[in-house]
Amino acid sequence: MKPAPFRYHAPETPGEVVGLLGEWGDEAKVIAGGQSLVPMLALRLASLGHLVDLRRLDELRGIERRDDDTVWVGAATTQAAVQRSEEVRAAVPLLARATPLIGHFQIRSRGTVGGSLAHADAAAEYPAVALTLDAELEALSPRGRRTIPAANFLNGVWTTALAEDELLTGVRFPVWSGRCGFAVEEFARRSGDFAIAGATVALRVDPAGRLDRCAISLFGLGPTARRATAAETALLGTDPLGTDAEDIGRLATEDLDSVPSDLHGSALYRIRVGAAMVARAWHGAVQEALHD
User: Is beta strand 136-141 parallel, antiparallel or unpaired with respect to 144-149?
Assistant: First the structure.
């Protein structure tokens, strides 16, 4: 099949982009890498009147260490660029470790950070990473700029807090300091497939050996990626050496609702896989924090 007819735009500034979005509303759609949108258009699962291409907007690409102890990643930065970045590997290791799990290298060479976040697929890695690290997302509209905490960005299946006339311009990832550990684990039937279930963990140990910061996120287990807040609360202040990874996996997944059930696995199966992914990620993060 071929996409339904649309009008193509290639603006040269972010202001021109949001001007087009403001003019055409839900008839317009932004395209960056196109790894999700193009197949949906080709299969006519999506249609639009105006396609706004970001390829001429160099200011939306790049990776920078900022003075406020964050790493800024432009929304149109490719996943391959993130994977190659020494800055990301050193300062935001969870982002670096999640990136090779995204599709195949051909997809990562075109797919973008902002595209993955704005598409908000429930089984995607980047939304879970942003949630885990308390990232902040920068958006531009005809009304100006605003910052959206990752915790407030994901609204539901393929929907976000972005308004129809807003453009995601970049993401700020906090740089965690101290004795920290980070891990991501996922299970997919084939390499490069979307995960059936996955988990990301970030934790920090204080000088007394207690957890003073802990974040666990789940993906593929509901309409959006989500934090396992009950488990996080229970773990804060504890000695990670005294924790049982399998118990943490069960605690992190016991209150899940709206778990998908389809030909790839029942809801119960996904929950069991998710608990195992949490346990593996927890073990890896603890080992890194205490021994590396």
Answer: antiparallel
Report yes or no: 195 and 179 within 8 Å, Cβ to Cβ: no
Residues in the chain, pLDDT under 50: none
Q: What's the pLDDT at 33?
A: 85
Is residue 46 classed exposed, middle or buried when 0-12, 13-18 and 19+ CB atoms within 10 A define those classes? middle
What is the pTM (predicted TM-score) of this model? Answer: 0.94
Report the pLDDT value the prediction gives residue 292, as an integer from 0 to 100.
67
Task: Report the C-alpha gap between 136 and 138 in whole angstroms.
Answer: 7
Tokens read off for 102: 């995204």
- Phi-psi group of 111: left, alpha or beta (phi > 0 → left; psi -120 to 50 → alpha; rest → beta): beta
**Largest Cα–Cα distance in the chain?**
63
Kind of pairing between the strands at 28-31 and 50-53: parallel
Contact, 51 vs 31, CB < 8 A?
yes
Alpha-carbon distance 75 to 102, whole Å?
16
C-alpha 53: how far from chain center: 22
Report d(CA 183, CA 292) in Å as an integer. 13
Q: How many CA atoms lie within 13 A of 236 on its CB side?
A: 10
Q: Quick one: CA dihedral 226, 143, 21, 139, positive or negative?
A: negative
Model confidence pLDDT, tens digit, residues 235-276: 999 999 999 999 999 999 999 999 999 888 899 999 999 999
Task: Give residue 247's pLDDT.
Answer: 97
Element (H, E) at 149: strand 144-149
Q: What single-letter DSSP state applies at residue 195?
A: P
d(CA 23, CA 46): 20
